[in-house]
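User: Teach me something about this protein's shape.
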Amino acid sequence: MPFELSYLLIYLAAGVVVGFFAGLLGIGGGAVMVPVLSLTFIRFGFSNEHVIHMALATSMATILPGAFASARAHHAHGAVNWRVVKQMTPGILVGTLAGTVFAYFSSTAFLKYFFVGFICFLAIQLLFNIKPQTGIEQSHRELPRQGGMLIFGAVMGFISSLAGIGGAVLTINFLAWCNVKIHEAIGTSSAVGFPIALAGTLGYVITGLMDSDLPKWSVGYVYVPAFMGIAMTSFLIAPIGAKLAHKLPVAMLKKIFMIFLLALAIKMLVSV
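Assistant: First, the predicted structure itself:
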């Protein structure tokens, strides 16, 4: 399919929505991008066989610049535990790459149901404000040793690659459960998101190169016009959403947004 300017305008608009809500609500853009990209690719006539793979791959690629900028900002505030990042990264790289290979051999139906199931999990957690318990009775919990961190990184990377996300929700919950202070958990999760996005992007590019029946302007499974449009505007708009987070009723908006996200996921479930 030939690339047209109107397509790029749609991706720019999608990036505005993704960046704004990611900054406002602290929700990773991947959860929004995968259904938006899937529905957009279907609308533009892409093969059903490829839309989920391409949506996951492009989502991973668009996370890269935002994850880098976010990690840099949190590092400047001393909120990144780099020891944790170093311990988790080898497992993340292996798990994420393994996930992209698994996705290559998986059907569109499986990937679709996996993503919708993950969105349901995320929605339940946010709608009911389910958080890891902390306090005196949980004070004995601490971060596991190197082996445990490697295993968690691998599992999280595998799940993230199949959901097209940077793993922020999983990482923050895990670190908070291990009694890491919340601001450090958030900062560390932003740093962890970069190797996930990098390994996921590389994995989907490599596996996609083995598939010859992809649309023009694709690099592997990454659709370049969508990557350019969404990455550009989401990167610019996210700080605006972050500033408004201190002025708007975020708790209520988060619940409304999760209902909207569930509706998007259901629409993807029916359409793809």
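Now, about its shape. The chain has ten helices and two strands. The two ends are 19 Å apart (CA to CA). If you'd like, I can walk through any region in more detail.
User: That's plenty for now, thanks!
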